Amino acid sequence: MNEEQLESRTVHCPYCDAPFDLLIDLSQGSHVTWEDCHWCCAPIQIRIEIPLDEEQPADVMLGRDDDVL
Record's InterPro entries (predicted)? Predict the structure, then answer.
């Protein structure tokens, strides 16, 4: 993990809608990962799309456990 490539985003849980800060590691490229909500403990699917143009922001999509992202 490269600390210069970490980005913090405020996102909302797709279950309870609670806001939380998500730390994104841009050095991993586009990927899918899972994280439990800090409030309701539900499993959140997180899809991170890193654009080829480095000046564009990363696209972050959150979904429920059974959503297809």
Answer: zinc_ribbon_bacterial
Query: How many domains is the chain built from?
Result: 1
Per the structure, the complete domain to which residue 47 belongs is given by 3-63
Quote the strand ranges of 14-69, DSSP E: 19-25, 31-36, 43-49, 59-63
Residues 14/63, Cβ–Cβ less than 8 Å: yes
Q: Is residue 68 part of a domain?
A: no
State pLDDT tens for residues 44-61: 999 999 998 878 889 999
- DSSP per-residue string spanning 44-57: EEEEEE--SSTTSP
